[in-house]
């Protein structure tokens, strides 16, 4: 392994307690097996980490942001538009950031080898997309509303409908992962992933809002979801080791 040299770069402030989910959330059973048992040790970042791979805008294809146009026919389900901005804590937009999403289909099933519950796969839906933020930090996806799905974490356990989000900065060490939920989901009360975020206001920031101005007549419902990187209004981010299909 090669270590970078040069000055250590300043570290970001640690988030407030209660905003990000704890490493060990006993109600979320699989975290028992994969949360760190020892205190975390921060590896200093130097210029080498940040001048590594750079994600070029040309890697994003024309249909990557439109999950309803990646196959011969349209997927089943309620067509939706999910849009918002990526922002710094002072409201400055974050341009040229790669935003990736993955989600279950309208029946609540992922196209994933480990997902085999008896809900139908959709031959016209892969469930992954990506987009770059523009100069104003805006991103936009067209997709279908994902269904809820069971996950055996506890008795009669169902995940509320959600879309997974990943954001890259300008290097692979700058990745943030979160989930977006839909307003008024009746399954929030029993979901240990959603409720692992102890801070009520932070939980609310994971929920998108219905956006009538983004809704297209006779076409698709609009939902708005801003992602704030730091500060008191910061979005909730997950550890990457929890970044599976749950
Ligand atoms: Fe999921």
Please explain how this structure is put together.
There is one protein chain. The chain is mainly β and 246 residues long. The protein is 7% helix and 21% strand. The protein contains 4 helices and 11 strands, in the order ααββββββββααβββ. The strands form 3 sheets. Strands 1, 4, 9, 10 and 11 form a 5-stranded mixed β-sheet that branches. It has a 4-stranded antiparallel β-sheet with strand order 3-2-7-8, with no helix packed on it. The longest helix has 5 residues. The radius of gyration is 18 Å and the shape is globular. 26% of the residues are buried. The model has no long low-confidence stretch (mean pLDDT 88). The protein binds fe (ii) ion.
Show the helix and strand layout.
Layout: H1 31-34, H2 47-50, E1 79-87, E2 98-102, E3 128-132, E4 138-144, E5 149-150, E6 158-159, E7 162-168, E8 175-181, H3 192-195, H4 200-204, E9 209-210, E10 221-224, E11 227-228
Parallel strand pairs: 1-10, 1-11
Antiparallel strand pairs: 1-4, 2-3, 2-7, 5-6, 7-8, 9-10
The structure holds fe (ii) ion (FE2).
Fe (ii) ion binds at residues 159, 162, 164, 245-246.
Number of helices: 4
Q: Which range best describes the helical content: under 10%, 10-25%, 25-40%, 40-55%, 55-70% or over 70%?
A: under 10%
* Global structural class: mainly beta
Coarse shape:
globular
Order of H and E elements: HHEEEEEEEEHHEEE
Low-confidence stretches: none
């Amino acid at each position: 392994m090669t270590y970078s040299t040069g000055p250590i770069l300043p570290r970001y402030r640690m988030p407030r307690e209660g905003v990000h989910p704890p490493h060990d959330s006993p109600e979320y059973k699989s975290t028992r097996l994969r949360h760190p048992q020892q205190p975390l040790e921060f590896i200093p970042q130097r210029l080498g980490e940040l001048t590594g791979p750079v994600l070029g805008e040309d890697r994003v294809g024309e249909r990557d942001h439109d999950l309803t146009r990646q196959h011969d026919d349209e997927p089943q389900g309620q067509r939706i538009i999910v849009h918002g901005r990526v922002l710094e804590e002072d409201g400055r937009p974050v341009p040229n950031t790669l935003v990736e999403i993955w989600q279950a289909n309208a029946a609540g099933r992922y196209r994933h080898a480990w997902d085999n519950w008896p809900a139908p796969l959709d031959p016209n839906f892969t469930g992954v997309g990506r987009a770059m933020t523009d100069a104003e930090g805006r991103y936009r996806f067209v997709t279908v509303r994902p269904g809820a799905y069971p996950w055996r974490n506890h008795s009669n356990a169902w995940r509320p409908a959600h879309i997974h989000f990943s954001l890259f900065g300008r290097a692979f060490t700058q990745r943030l992962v979160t989930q977006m939920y839909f307003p008024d989901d009746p399954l929030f009360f029993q979901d240990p992933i959603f409720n692992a975020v102890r801070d009520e206001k932070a939980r609310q920031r994971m929920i998108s809002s219905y956006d009538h101005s983004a809704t297209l007549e006779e076409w698709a419902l609009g939902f708005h979801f801003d992602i704030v990187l730091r500060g008191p209004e910061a979005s909730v981010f997950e550890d990457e080791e929890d970044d599976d299909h749950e």
